[in-house]
Amino acid sequence: MSWTADLTERVVKAIPGGYAAGGPVASEPMAWAAVCLAERGRVREARLAGDWLAKTQARDGSVGVTGQEPTPAWPTGLAMLAWRSVEAVLHKAVYQDNIRRAADWALAAEGRTVERKRQIGHDTTIVGWSWAADTHSWLEPTAFFVKALTRIGYGDHPRVQDGVRLLVDRLLPAGGANYGNTIVLGQELLAHVQPTGIALWALAETPAQSPLIEKAIEFLDASVSADTTTASLSYAVLGLTAQGRRPAAADAWLHAACDRELSRATNLYKLALLANASPASTT
Fold first, then answer.
1. Deepest of 14, 63, 147, 206, by most Cβ within 10 A of its Cβ?
2. Are 193 and 236 contacting, i.e. CB atoms less than 8 angstroms apart?
3. Single pTM value for the model
4. Is 205 helix (H, G, I), strand (E, B) or coil?
5. Contact 199/139 with Cβ under 8 angstroms?
6. Which domain of life is it from (predicted)?
7. Are residues 41 and 14 in the same domain?
């Protein structure tokens, strides 16, 4: 059995799961599991993950972080992506109502804006999505919603277009991105691998054009290696692959990361991310 096939089986066995072995079942890991299993033809298991997300969905359309925690609801974007992935292999709109209600909620959910200040480098007036209600828009939740809403046909919606503007605005002048701050008190902040990968992954299906995107690709290409931790490595490979710049050594790095995870008590979150970034997946 190949390491990717073994990884798929490990994802299946880890369902339902979350961020820690034996911990609460969580929406983000379950969504990533649904996506990778759908793309690997494991339809029944992908449907199980998609159904769990559907049962977790609140009446208002949002999906909370766990089955017992309806808020914050930033995983709603990933749930939409999961449902659409499962529908694509089933060739049936089995989650049509779930996707519609989630999209309605997402399009109404807005990160809080504030007036621009000279001490802050990014445009604080662009409306994106936040980690929690009534807080400022940040890069990663905005990326998840931009990706999901684009996939389900809302790419031309003004909210999605604003989300794309926000993602480009939050890219660092020197290359890369972090959680969403660029310059504070005249000091450019450091870039991080994981949010840079997430931003590039989301922007790949949009018409966004900016020299900052190429700088982000260059930062990520120079920063990722066999020593990069599992989640960051997975998102980096997803981002670079989506941009048509998958590193030649990516499969070897992912294989080594998989071996590391399987040598200890790992979790669905890391296994599913690895599976989405590995050769059998094209997300």
1. 63
2. yes
3. 0.96
4. coil
5. yes
6. Bacteria
7. yes
